[in-house]
Design brief:
Layout lengths: L1 H11 L13 H19 L3 H26 L1 E9 L2 E6 L3 E6 L13 E7 L2 E6 L1 H4 L12 E6 L4 E6 L1 E9 L3 E2 L3 H4 L6 E5 L4 E3 L1 H6 L6 H8 L1
Parallel strand pairs: 2-11, 5-7
Antiparallel strand pairs: 1-2, 1-8, 3-6, 4-5, 6-7, 9-10, 10-11
Length: about 220
């Protein structure tokens, strides 16, 4: 009897023997998991103030889109180049690339403004002196070492320049459209002139001019 009492005392003190098993309250466990999940979701969801900030940003971006588009439509993008100390520009959408002038081959029986042809990666292109084509007086020194390759779906030519000055975004409001006598260029080849005396040529009119087509001579040379 005394031994049993001693055993019970030892177990009660936790020194030896198995620990008592406590039943798990699964309802309480599920409630705790659900509360934890709900708390996590609350931290991940934006607050009302955050939603309003996002909506304001979206509204601002949508409002800016037509403004940006309108600004782009109000400008003319031109490639600027120099020719005998004069500055010219031509719409960039008609410029395929800029190519250094090399291995120019003269063509016989062609107009004076056609200086010859060049081979650009296997493609033969005629090269013109734009000042001669426009009957502008020769003045100043010129190097003519760059070729601006102009193109449409039907036509592609090279136009000589001394140097490429860069690409400019010119507001239409800054272009004077009715001053052909100021430059000596006939109106059909002129987009306009800026107050900085940049002469903007009409690339489309140049490329569609039948006088500039020298297909027969180029094909004969290529053959």
């Amino acid at each position: 009897m005394q031994e049993k009492e001693a055993t019970r005392t030892t177990l009660a003190r936790g020194q030896t023997g198995p620990k008592p098993v406590t039943a798990i309250d699964w309802t309480d466990v599920r409630d705790r998991l659900e509360n934890t999940r709900a708390a996590i979701e609350r931290t991940m969801l934006p607050t009302l103030a955050e939603k309003q900030v996002v909506l304001r940003r979206r509204a601002k971006a949508l409002a800016l889109e037509p403004t940006v588009k309108a600004r782009a439509e109000e400008h003319l993008v031109v490639v600027e180049f120099s020719l005998a100390y004069e500055q010219y520009g031509i719409e960039s959408s008609y410029v395929r690339e800029i190519y250094p002038l090399k291995d120019l081959t003269p063509l016989p029986c062609t107009p004076a403004f056609v200086l010859g042809v060049i081979n650009v990666r296997g493609k033969i292109l005629s090269v013109i002196d734009i000042k001669k084509f426009l009957d502008l007086p020769d003045k100043g020194l010129t190097d003519l070492n760059m070729v601006i390759i102009l193109h449409t779906n039907q036509m592609e030519i090279g136009m000589l320049a001394d140097a490429i000055l860069g690409i400019s975004l010119i507001p239409f409001s800054a272009i004077q459209f009715s001053l052909p006598t100021l430059t000596g260029i006939r109106a059909e080849y002129l987009r306009g002139v800026t107050k900085e005396r940049l002469v903007i040529l009409d690339a489309k009119a140049l490329l569609l001019d039948k006088k500039i087509i020298v297909h027969e001579e180029v094909e004969a040379f290529h053959g």
